[in-house]
Amino acid sequence: MDSKPATIAELKSSGWRDRPIKDELRENLIERMRTSEDLFPGIIGYDDTVIPALERSILAGHDIILLGERGQGKTRLIRRLVELLDPETPVILGCEINDSPYRPVCRHCHERIAERGDDVEIVWLPADRRFAEKLATPDTAVADLIGDVDPIRVAEGRYLSDELVIHYGLVPRTHRGIFSINELPDLPPRIQVSLLNVLEERDVQIRGFTVRLPLDLLLVATANPEDYTNRGRIITPLKDRFGSEIRTHYPLDRDDEISIMHQEARPPAGVAVSVPEFIEDIVAEYTHQVRASGHVNHRSGVSVRLSIANLETLIASSVRRAIRSGEPEAVPRVCDLGSLIQSTMGRVEFEGFEEGREEEILTRLLAQAVLAIFRERLMGFDFSDLLNRFDTGMEIQSGDLVAADELIAQTDDLDVSDLLMRLGLRGESPGDAAAAVEFALEGLHLTRRLNKSSNRYAS
User: Fold this and answer.
1) Residue 382: Cβ-neighbour burial (10 angstroms; 0-12, 13-18, 19+)
2) Cα atoms found within 13 Å of the Cα of residue 130, Cβ hemisphere only
3) Which of 23, 28, 57, 260 is the most exposed place for a label (fewest CB within 10 A)?
């Protein structure tokens, strides 16, 4: 820190080059692309769709609107743009709007430079302080975004004609940075109008003052397509000023959904947990079944957060069983899937004519997910030995509090090694064996080769 320039004179001597924000983002993006560096780590499923569109927008120097349903990672993607900024940038000490030492725009900085010249002190602003975001709400005011007269400064003796009585809003305070508005259509039209100059003329006007601040920023907004016609809409002149509109989407395949689940799910601490791959497949497939269902309101979307919450719920159910039964390791099984109905109910909106049938619909979709994974994983597997045991009177009782040892003890020493191998389980614990047996039994029931006296999610 001591070696960094501390005045404008020292900054000029260092050879530091001032760049507009969009040039800075463009040049840093190009550098990362040349080194094949991962541009947006943690963003899964967008490599061939959204990321290329975002790269083109940055290279073109466009302001951007991300259009997509809830839970598609729009806000996370915007926050990742901060990583394309320089680690630090110099600003004039004490400036409210992060003025550049080479091209100040506010009156306060002009006066200081006129008085002290290149001896004006500077500070170095980290990249994360050059980003601001605002959730658009109906009560948002122009003063919040652009600014207003500060009555305290007037009370201190300044005249209303003095530019220094202005208290700047979020947009000017993000000068030389990235400003994000989430859910833009929720802003009333009269508030959206205040952004027109920001996007086109790149300046702001406040309360009739003749002052015009030529701002340098990247403006990024998010919107839900349904908002265009329901809660609100983006006024046409404002929408026309965004250079790029990028459509986001939910994970296109199950593997991406599972990768997001791995990245975001937070299992309980203090208990060893092992989740079989086929269980993860069922959770992800269940979400895809819900998204594809004609009974679900597709305009509201089915968030990836549903998969994350369902995996956490499934793990919690297995941890509960492990604690109560004294098992050393929690392994989610088919008997835990019933808990997903409750964790799904509050996150999915159904069509109006399905009122009262929500649980029935989700139960059927869950059964379809289990059946799909069973056919995918165990199609053609020889179950003759297992079925013969049932033909001779074997019965197996299970439940979300039945320990793995207790379940396996009911199988009459059935050899499940081939089943474990087929499912990719290591077979080192009773939990793995119990999970495999339950999955096989459920699949045989859903394919109508076994009877089940009680089913928490009927096929």
Assistant:
1) exposed
2) 29
3) 23
Our measurement of the distance from residue 135's CA atom to the centroid of its chain's CA atoms, rounded to an integer in Å, reads: 15
Is the model's pLDDT at 433 over the cut of 70?
Answer: yes
Tell me the C-alpha distance between 344 and 44, whole Å.
23
What are the E-state strand segments in 212-334?
213-214, 217-223, 244-247, 272-273, 329-330
Could you list the beta-strand ranges (E) of 331-392: none
Structure token pair of residue 444: 């045989």
DSSP three-state, residue 319: helix
Ramachandran area for residue 375 (φ above 0: left; ψ -120 to 50: alpha; else beta): alpha
User: In whole numbers, what is the pLDDT of the chain averaged over residues?
Assistant: 89
How many C-beta atoms lie closer than 10 Å to residue 208's C-beta?
A: 8
- Within a 13 Å sphere around the CA of 119, how many CA atoms are in the beta-carbon half? 3
Buried b or exposed e, range 142-172, using 16+ CB within 10 angstroms: bbbbbbbbbeeeeeeebeeeeeebbbbbbbb
Residue 209 has pLDDT above 90, yes or no: no
Computed over its alpha carbons, how large is the radius of gyration of the chain?
29
Using the structure block, give the residue that is written with the tokens 């039945």: 402
Give yes or no for a contact between 434 and 411, defined as CB atoms under 8 angstroms apart. no
Distance CA 164, CA 166 (A): 5
Count other Cβ atoms within 10 Å, centred on residue 437: 24
Q: Residue 125 pairs with which residues in a beta bridge? A: 89
Each domain of the chain, given as residue ranges in start order, spans 8-247, 254-446
Q: For residue 47, which phi and psi values (nearest 5 degrees)?
A: -60, -35
CA dihedral 86, 92, 95, 99 (to 10 degrees): -60
Question: What's the CATH fold of domain 8-247?
Answer: Rossmann fold (3.40.50)
Which stretch of DSSP H or E encloses residue 66?
Answer: strand 64-67
Which of 58-67, 69-78, 179-188 ranks highest by mean pLDDT? 58-67
Task: Return the C-alpha torsion angle 253, 258, 261, 262, nearest 10.
Answer: -140
| Lookup: tokens for 248 | 């986001």
- β-bridge mates for residue 71, sequence order: none
The whole model's pTM is what? 0.86
**Quick one: 249 exposed, middle or buried, by C-beta within 10 A (0-12, 13-18, 19+)?**
middle
Structure tokens at 66: 């991300």
Phi/psi for 159 (5° steps) reads -85, 150
Answer yes or no: are the C-beta atoms of 359 and 341 closer than 8 Å: yes
* C-beta neighbour count of 421 within 10 angstroms: 12
- Strand segments, DSSP code E, in 228-335 are 244-247, 272-273, 329-330
Q: Check residue 253 and give its pLDDT.
A: 92
